[in-house]
Structures are given as structure tokens and as C-alpha cells.
Amino acid sequence: MVLDPDLTLPGDSPVLDPVDALLSRFTHFGVELGLERISRLLAALGNPQRQVPVLHIAGSNGKGSVCAYLSAVLMQAGYRVGRYTSPHLEHWCERIWLNGEDISVNTLHSLLEEVVAAIDPNYPSPTQFEVVTAAAWLYFARQQVDVAVMEVGLGGRLDATNVCDRPLVSLITSLSREHWQRLGPTLADITGEKAGILKARCPAAIAPQPPEAAAVLQARLHALQCPAIWVQPAVDLGNGWAEWQWDGGLGSEIGNEIGNEVDNAPRPKAAISYPLPLPGAHQLTNSAVALAALHLLRLRGWDISDADIVAGMARAQWRGRMQWMDWQGHRLLIDGAHNPAGAIALRQYVDQQIEQGDIAPQRWRNRRSSPITWVIGMIGTKDHADVFRALLRPGDRLHLVPVPEHSPVDLEKLAALATEAQPQLARSQQHSDVWPALEAAFSVSQESAPGATQSGDGAPLVVLCGSLYLIGHFLKRCRLTSAKNLA
User: Fold this and answer.
1) Can you tell me the distance from the alpha carbon of 466 to that of 406, in angstroms, rounded to the nearest whole number?
2) How far is CA 292 from the centre of its chain?
3) How far apart are CA 355 and CA 370, in angstroms?
4) Confidence grade of residue 182 (pLDDT, cut at 50, 70, 90)
């Protein structure tokens, strides 16, 4: 099949069939952590990862937005920037990004064929994630990027991205108990896996952590003699601006140094005000982590001005996370919140909007109990009850949906968990698909606020959340529906 070499966003799913078909050969290998397979594969490809300067990001929540901030600022500063993130929302090409553009379908398919050809059949096959990650390393090396912003897929220590010996900076975002089935039962176990991206004497930027996680990280930083900025959240200045401050400390216990080139360099306190385009109070922390990493680069001589930071931060975008959109004339909030920490952040954002009077009918404004209509789909490995406890309040309405192309979850059991978490739900329904669920959600919301307009003025808020896979399916379906209507 001949592919359009300029195509970066497929207009219809069949265009991606070659990529999907190739990668589908590896789906049955599932998720299997370990570095032997990816190391063997990269060696067969000439170890492209050794040619790529790396900013390496691990964590439970906030990794994607930190990647977005870093890549936007570094691109604004004139650097050639690669970015690798997962999962994708609509198509595989989103995962591999260069200077603001997703990799083309044709280029991705060609790289994947090259990677597959390098697999040694005498050894265990690499996983799907390892194949795609190898393609990313190969692409960034050949494109001669100045830096690659690499997001960990799962965990850290045994993740396929963790093959760089000397990262420019290792970043660890907020940690919580997630993926415990694979990373260990306790937060300390999970933190130990995430801390596996730290490398000896390589600088680190660490988000605020629960005490249990902080103790593990502190011990690992000390053992590896890693200079580290323990980030404090930025200060909200209002009107979409924030201020990040740094006291100049890099872990005095281990000697404040970042390589020989700055051993004797002064490290004055730093402060910078910047726009914060991504919504939610948690972005005060995520943006501060990114700025700490950028400051560590500046200490090593990278040419990143304050003006670059301001302009770059203003351009940062991250789809599917607390994103407002129009759906069939209705105002809809979508978010990929899929674990308890993400659900807490989403609920805080919604409550903040209610308190400010930006959403909810007049009679409910300034009340934290304003009813919300939730359309939720979750995959089976998540902590469903904790997510429900974080999101649901008395009087809320719940519409449960399956997540397409993933193992089905019993919606009746989810409904029972939701009712147990919040017995005072005004309504709880199950649907076979997200489309009729949204139609029902907006129908009920309009009935509860007769004077509301279709655009959402005065109507109770409808939120679609629970899984990035669900959000991706929804966005792709919206795009294809729009394209069909325009045809």
C-alpha cells in the first residue's frame, strides 16, 4: 500500500492500517517489563539511543503536561526537540513528535519495518511498546535532535525508555499508588521502580511527594550522588499566570554540583513569572517541575532565556486533559483522569469552576454541591472505587460506558461500586456506547435546568472521563463524524 509521505493526521482509520497491522503482531506479548529485549534490539539497530541527549520523565500523574511544557520551551529557544509519549489518543503517530509535528504515517511505517527486521528470532520477541520505543530512538538519532523529551511508559527501572546512561535531567512527577499489580503493592515499592530512572551524578527535578515516596527518593538520590531540585509548586498570580521560585539549593548533603562544567558556578536564587495555559491547580506543580529541569539545563550552559520560557509556556498544549470542547452544540469537559490522584485533581478543578461561577446554573453557584453529570468508562486494572470516591458527590448523575477495544468491565459491578462510594446519586445508568450516554447525559441536564441554552449557559456540567483510551476513542470519532458531515 502506498502511503502519503506528508500525511501526519490520518483522515480515516484505514490509512493507518499498515501501522496497525504491523504492530498488531506484537499485541499478544502484552506488557512485560525488562531491559534485555529492548537492549538487544537497539544493539541490532546500532544503539541509536547513545546519540540522543535525553530529558527522562517518570511519575504517576503529570508526565504528559511536563513533557508538553519542556518541548514547547526548548523549541521556542531554538533547539531541535524530539518528544516521545504514551499512550496516544487517536493514532500511533502522536507518540513520536519532532519540533511541533507528529511523525508521518509513512515514516513511522518505514521505521517500524526496519525495527522488526532487526528482531532476532532466536530470542524472546520484544513487546509492542518496545518496538515503538525502538522506532522513536532510531528516529530521534537520525533527525539529530538536540534533545529528546522521553516519557516513561510504565514504572521506570525496567521501562524500555530507560536505556540512557547519562540523562541531561531525570524528572519525577507526583507519585501515587497506581499500577500496583506490576510495580509492587506499596507506594514505597512503586517509588523504587520510578526512581530507577535516576542515574549516578546526573541532576534530577523532583515534584512534591508523600512522605513514604520522598524517603525512598531521598535515599536513592543520596546513594547515586544526584544533585536535585526538590520542587515546590509555583505561586498562582491569577489571570492565568504563575511564578516559580528556586532557593538555589541542589541537595547540599551531596555537594551542589552538576558536572565539572558548573562545579564552581554561582547558583543564585531564581524566580520567573510565566503564563499557565493548561487548566487545574495541579499545573502549578507540573509547570514548576518543568521549569526546574529547564533551570538545570541553564546551569549547564543551555541558552534558554526568560523570554523563551514565557513564550514557550504560553504555547504548551496537551489534548484530552481538562479540555473544554463543543459536542453537538453542548459544552463538554473531557479529561483522561484514570487513577485516584487524577480524579482528585479533576474534582478540584470542577469545584473551583463552580465556586468561580463559571459553570452550573445560577441557583447552584457558590455551592460545592452543584450536581455534575459524569460519563465514565474505565479499564479493568484501575482502582475503580477510589476514583468514584474522588469524583462523586450527592446529587450527581452517573452514566457508565465501556472502553472500546479493551477487555470489558462489568458495568453492573461498576455501578454497585459507585453507589457504595456515593449512595446519594440522583441517577446511575449503564450504556453500551459513549455516544448515547452523552446524549442521555445532556438530555437530563437540560431537563434539570429548563432555562439553559444548548451552549451550556446555565446547564449543569457534563464531564467525560475515566480513561485516556476512552477519550482517544471519543476524539477520533468526533473527527471522523465531522469529516463525514463535511464531505
Assistant:
1) 13
2) 18
3) 9
4) low
Cite the DSSP H helix spans in 179-334. 180-183, 187-194, 211-224, 283-299, 306-315
Whether the Cβ atoms of residue 103 and residue 96 lie closer than 8 Å to each other = yes
Q: Is 81 helix (H, G, I), strand (E, B) or coil?
A: strand
Would you place residue 126 in the very low, low, confident or very high pLDDT band (cuts 50, 70, 90)? Answer: very high
Asked if pLDDT for residue 326 goes beyond 90, the answer is yes
| Cα–Cα dist 346/165, whole Å | 36
DSSP codes, 350-387: HHHHHHTTSSS-GGGTT-TT---EEEE---TTS-HHHH
pLDDT of 28 above 80 = no
Q: 168, exposed or middle or buried, with CB in 10 Å at 0-12, 13-18, 19+?
A: buried
Tell me the one-letter amino acid at 83: R
The CB density around residue 385, as the number of other CB atoms within 10 Å, is: 15
3-class state of residue 447 by DSSP: helix
pLDDT beyond 60 at 451: no
Is the distance from CB of 146 to CB of 51 less than 8 angstroms? no
